[in-house]
Write a structure and sequence with these properties.
CATH class of the largest domain: Alpha Beta
Bound molecules: 4'-deoxy-4'-aminopyridoxal-5'-phosphate
Distance between the termini: 22 Å
Strand order of the largest sheet: 2-10-9-8-5-3-4
Oligomer: single chain
CATH topology of the largest domain: Aspartate Aminotransferase, domain 2
Radius of gyration: 21 Å
Helix content: 40-55%
Number of helices: 13
Order of helices and strands: EHHEHEHEHEEEHEHEEHHHHEEHEEEH
Largest sheet: 7 strands, mixed
Number of strands: 15
């Protein structure tokens, strides 16, 4: 017995041993030359993973919500109009967050498992002049993936800053931030980036940085203010010591290792691996009479799956049975459908044997519920 279970939730995920080893190395000074080099390398590698060579990357101590907050704090001024494209739980969170900074927020919501159509988005952009729009690349509550490319195009056409919540997508799904014209793409360490929870990560376009520079009012959040953090990121990239708030030294060392592994695999191979494993998982799940929440394959995420229980299965008995297995899965997250579905993460270091083990645990649990051998 290994004494541990396979972690198949949509973050945190199973981490590579090399990454965990880096995390356990003796903590050094945040101004030590080798740490400065690690931080600088990580900032540069992020721009490669995000495919945004002209962007400004930021690494902060915090979770994905802090990365979302960085956009609200730095890009919104009281009274600005913001459009939130919501495909689930995290779209709703973004709307609430932007309101805290005084934004006048309009929300376009999809039904669970669906996306908001481009014509609906374009109509909203035609009717009103928005400063910024946000969308969730992969909503972790529904397993729905939104195509960022046409949204980036609409952002350029109507001169609206585009913010992509990539907490459940970056380093797992295709990402071409610069080519797609996305102004900010953010994530957190504990998902497809493959580092234990604790880092908020984002890359901002020159247009986003200009919008912040041209603010008429000061940033209303002391910790998030780029006035403090931009010189720090610039110093690390230029190999100079600097300080504003103590960085997560060990997590940054682990981030450098993980980003190197991601780039060694190559983003194209990595995305192809995620696609192939997700497809395999969905096929096996459907063979067991489950139904996926995303209404079609084109909008199904490759980093996680949201799966409806069939009528014949009692949700709490199923989750209880799974809790006794060697595989950890996640319950539903959308408040209105919480007991109707469950979620499985398959991102980062995931391989075929993880998929097979998860399917086997689900199959065994169902058989036990039906009292089958
Ligand atoms: N956005 C999405 C799409 C997420 O999946 C999550 C986390 N599940 C968040 C934002 C918030 O990230 P965190 O929990 O790290 O604050």
């Amino acid at each position: 017995m290994k004494g541990r279970k396979l972690l198949m939730i949509p973050g945190p995920i199973e981490f590579e041993p090399e990454v965990l080893q880096a995390l356990g190395a003796p903590t050094t000074s945040h101004t030590a030359p080798d740490f400065i080099a690690s931080f600088g390398n990580s900032l540069r590698m992020m721009k490669k993973v995000w495919e945004c060579p002209d962007g400004q990357s930021f690494i902060m101590a915090g979770s994905g919500t802090l990365a979302m907050d960085m956009a609200g704090a730095n890009l919104i001024e009281p009274g600005d109009k913001a459009l939130v494209i919501s495909t689930g739980y995290f779209g709703e969170r973004y709307a609430e967050l932007l309101k805290r900074y005084g934004a006048n927020v309009s929300i376009l919501r999809s039904e669970p498992g669906e996306t908001v159509s481009l014509s609906v988005i374009e109509n909203a952009l035609k009717k009103d002049k928005f400063k910024l729009m946000t969308f969730t690349h992969v909503d972790t509550s529904t397993g729905v993936m939104v195509n960022p490319k046409p949204i980036g195009e609409l952002g350029r056409k109507y001169d609206v800053l585009t913010v992509l919540d990539g907490v459940c997508s970056v380093a797992g799904e295709e990402m071409r931030q610069q080519q797609w014209g996305i102004d900010m793409a953010l994530t957190a360490s504990q998902k497809a980036i493959g580092v234990p929870p604790g880092l908020a990560l984002l890359v901002a376009s020159p247009k986003a940085m200009d919008a912040w520079k041209n603010r008429k009012t000061p940033v209303g959040n002391y910790y998030c203010d780029w006035t403090h953090w931009l010189p720090i990121m610039q110093a690390y990239e230029e190999g100079r010591p600097s300080y504003f708030g103590t960085p997560s030294v060990n997590l940054v060392a682990a981030l450098e290792v993980s980003l190197k592994m991601i780039l060694a695999e190559g983003m194209e191979n990595r995305v192809a691996r995620h696609k192939a494993l997700a497809k395999e998982f969905r096929e096996k799940i459907r063979e067991m009479e489950f139904r996926m929440m995303p209404v079609n394959e084109d909008i199904s995420a490759n980093t996680l799956s949201a799966i409806y229980f069939p009528e014949s299965i009692n949700a709490s008995e199923f989750m209880g049975g799974m809790a006794k297995s060697d595989v950890i899965v996640a319950p539903g997250l959308l408040p209105e459908l919480k007991s109707k579905y469950f979620r499985v993460g398959h991102m980062g270091s995931v391989n075929l044997s993880d998929i097979v083990s998860t399917i086997a645990a689900i199959e065994n649990t169902i058989n036990q519920l039906k009292n089958l051998p």
